[in-house]
Amino acid sequence: MLLKNRLAHPVRFTRCIVHLWLAMILMLFVSSCDRRQLWDEWDTLVPVDINVDWNGSRWADFDEGEPPTGMSVYAFDQTGQHDPALVVTNDIEHTKITLYDGDWNLFVFNQSVMEYASLQFTGMERYASAQIETVPQASRWFASSRAEWVTRSNSPWAAQTRATRAQATRDGTRADDYSLTAKQPIWFANDCYEGVIIDDSQIIRDFTPHTRFDDGTFYPKSAIIKMGVKVHFKGFANLYTVRAVISGVAKSYNISQMHSQTEMTAHELTGWQSKAETDSTGYVETDFQTFGLVKGYSFGPEELYLHLDVMLVDGQTILTHDLPVGDKVWISKDDDLDLIIEVKDPIELPDVQMTGGGKGFDITVSDWEDEINIDIDL
Questions:
Q1: Which pTM was predicted?
Q2: What is the pLDDT of residues 225-267, one digit of tens each?
């Protein structure tokens, strides 16, 4: 028995040597293979290609001078399981955003939120609620001279203003009365893409997978329009200067709907130009930037008001007009304008004695701003 055990030891030793050699050969074989990683082993985050074409965004129409210098890409999970994703980049033509598997809604716009001092962004945590709106801008003469009109008018803007002020007073958050008017919005362009599906059927299976959804290029459109205002006069030689506010235009714009909202605001109009047509007739005109007409606009006369003050060449006579112009909006044929509000029935100006300083139409009369602000109880 002892002899048999001694004879078995060399056999076991030989077997160990063989197993060791086999293991080494197997390791060399495995290490020499070009192994491709299976898709299931990738993280569930997937880089998504974003391409943007700005050619139709009209950046040159709004005194930008050059194309946008950056863009923001937002992505929202339709199920709400994942937080919104955001990429801000200086490359305005292409970027990537990394998303989890699922269904996503995306939108793109020029620049970043932090670069818009004259616009306020709200609801950015959800795709459906994301919007921009104008911010208040003081107009002392309008707040003082139109206090009574705002209090009693049945215009939709005046009624909305009264309701908003009443609620703000109850909440203890009422702002000063100069905020009857708002800054004109600067150029903003965006585009949206809904229902982007991140799944196996749309992923390239390689070491750098991307999704490529159908026509995955965004084509931003301008959210801002240019609206012209034109007012005709009889007795045009008696006109010295004008000042005006337009009320009832859209205050906000929903980014995902790509449409203005029902909230209304008022913009002060500046940069007036005049033109005499005959010895006694002529007109003044200007244009402004806006989110456009409110959602559901029906072209009723009282939906827009032109609040116009006219100073005559005697330097003392001021004529005040609150003109319903909601039905006087028409599509412009001018390449630089989208809509025009035109008061075609001429406003008649009485004859007055021209003062020594009166030399015809003047668009800058600083004394008009030296009015006392009147508190508006709405």
A1: 0.81
A2: 999 999 999 999 999 999 999 999 999 999 999 999 999 999 9
